[in-house]
Amino acid sequence: MIVAAPDLLVDTIRADLCVIGTGPGGAMVAMLAAEAGLKVVALEAGAFVTPGDMNQREADMFPRLLWEAGGRTTVDKAIRIHQGHGVGGSSLHNLNLCKRVPPGIRARWAADRGEGPLWDDLYDEVEALLEVKDVDPAMVNRHNALLAAGAAALGWEHGLLRHNRTGCIGSGYCEIGCAFDAKNNALKKLIPRGVRAGLAVVSLAQAVSVDHADGRVRGVDAVILDARTRQPLGRLRIEAPRVCVSASATGTPALLLRSGVPDPSDTTGNSLRIHPAVVAAGDFEEPVYAWRGVPQSVECTEFLRLDEENGPRTWVVPAFAHPVGVATLVPGLGEHRAVMQRYPHLGALTAMIHDRTRGTVRPRGDLGVAISYTPDDEDRAELRRGLAYACRLLFAAGARRVLVPAGRAIEVTRPDEIAQVLAVDAELSAVHPMGSVPMGQDPTTAAVGLTGRHHHLDGLWVSDASLFPTSIGVPPQLSVYALGLHVGRQLVLDPSPDRGTK
User: Fold this and answer.
1) Among all residues, which ones are annotated catalytic?
2) Burial label, 101 (beta-carbon count in 10 A; 0-12, 13-18, 19+)
3) How do residues 33-75 score in pLDDT, each as one tens digit?
4) What is this structure's pTM?
5) Domains of the chain by range and CATH?
């Protein structure tokens, strides 16, 4: 069943397992555990939003699907951190990109942290479950075709992306939920199976702390949230000998730290990567209508060599935003009006880097998170190069000018002016936080083992993007589903809540 916490008639629930978070990692664990016969309760801080509720209006959907209505930032307000909530987590609003962690990165993880999941087998199984396939070339819209044209003109490597979508009509509203239920996401593919097996999902219930004593988990204390204001209405207690935290790469470390979960390695919350991105917008003579069709179907990988330890680290894809999103990026008053009047003619590209900077996550109050992240010099230089690549692609595709958000809009009107952006610290955003509770075989250097089981607190598990030992340099959703499959199976096989192989 799926029930909203304010509708519960009890304030205590007993279960074999409590899963915190219902995104790809948590939903997979909850489904597998329920199908194995465990009594499972999954807590979700967001609401239960069905495709029928997704009305394609930013003002309505951002508060319902995104933390802080899409306004989450680092503590210094310098970087936007885009994260989702709701039954299904970020899979409700993401753009369905599916890429595997490059083999070179996995090999370095194995050498540094110990042999982990059997990634290729997990990927094969998850891709079949989610019906992952190449985007149909007929679904490539003009916006993405411009990236392909620019890359072809420059002789740069590019190609079609792979997505987990079926029955897509190209409405273009992926970011604010699919009203046509074409996303093969956690809500569609995992939650129903779990519910059929007896899984209970409690929405609008945000975990405050993991209760533990004498080295063992005892349960979870949560608050019941008002659906509209998201303010606490009351308390909820889940008594369970096992807990799996899948609250995202920001929510998970904040919850573990708030709960006083022991970590002699001191790694929890101290190694956040965010896959930071810069954006450049091209103004084209002919309308682009970037909001129509599949938002991201083409990638440029000319400067992405992640199998090389010190190779280039920049990935370029179209950056799409609905009107409100675009308007928040454009500075100035008269300048703002002029740019927005050209909205149908704008095409934007984003350059994301495989970052090496380590940020931090800390709890803020009972429910919030405090994210700190300042790119180091090497990452800042890579971001500037990425911005220059995006500008070159836009001009090669036919843009008559390129605009770069950087406090004020920097306008570049000719390719030979691109060099000036190398001196600019453009505005940053991030949609792929990861690596904040990195898994590892050695309990002195990692809080969580390679199975997802916590090294230092019996009965505690983690299953989300927190577990990546480093940035992965590509979208994480496929790998989080794969980790969920791995962790869920290990949890089910674990002989008891308080013993077993870590």
Assistant:
1) 432
2) buried
3) 999 999 999 999 999 999 999 999 999 999 999 999 999 999 9
4) 0.95
5) 2-69+83-133+177-269+436-493 (3.50.50.60), 134-174+272-430 (3.30.560.10)
